[in-house]
Inverse folding.
């Protein structure tokens, strides 16, 4: 059995940026020479989760509209009240309670099967990093576990 790790970095552009990184995952699998196994992908952020869905432009716009309605920025969030909040504060802290609330609905990890060196997907499935906050550098970690391809 072989185990390989890799970290990917992405600069997101804006809130509700859907970054399709499926091809980068498949390239990592191919370079690993893993024939059969699994890949686990983990976001390193609480407001940039993962999603497996279809990469169709109108559907992505529907997702964005849906997210805006689910957790509007205009609501009052305790997380945003810096007169009360005393933990997990950064120097340049932003008011992003809505982003954290949205993240409740997404996974922080995705595990997918690898068979014959290929990700196993339905016809239209792709893997996305979803920016729920604002433009920033984001990191994902990947780990492949599996058997070598026979040479």
């Amino acid at each position: 059995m072989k185990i390989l790790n890799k970290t990917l970095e992405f600069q997101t552009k804006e809130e509700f940026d859907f970054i399709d990184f499926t091809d980068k995952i498949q390239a990592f699998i191919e370079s690993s020479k893993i024939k059969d196994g699994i890949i686990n992908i983990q976001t390193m952020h609480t407001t940039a989760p993962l999603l497996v869905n279809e990469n169709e432009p109108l559907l992505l716009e529907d997702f964005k509209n849906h997210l805006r309605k689910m957790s509007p920025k205009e609501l009052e969030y305790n997380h945003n009240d810096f007169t009360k909040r005393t933990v997990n504060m950064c120097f340049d802290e932003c008011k992003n309670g809505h982003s954290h609330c949205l993240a409740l609905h997404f996974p922080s990890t995705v595990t997918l099967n690898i068979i014959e060196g290929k990700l196993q997907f339905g016809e239209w499935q792709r893997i996305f990093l979803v920016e729920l906050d604002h433009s920033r550098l984001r990191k994902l970690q990947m780990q492949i576990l599996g058997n070598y391809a026979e040479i």
Remarks:
- The radius of gyration is 18 Å.
- The beta strands are 2-11, 18-20, 34-43, 50-54, 109-115, 118-119, 125-130, 137-148.
- The first strand starts at residue 2 and ends at 11.
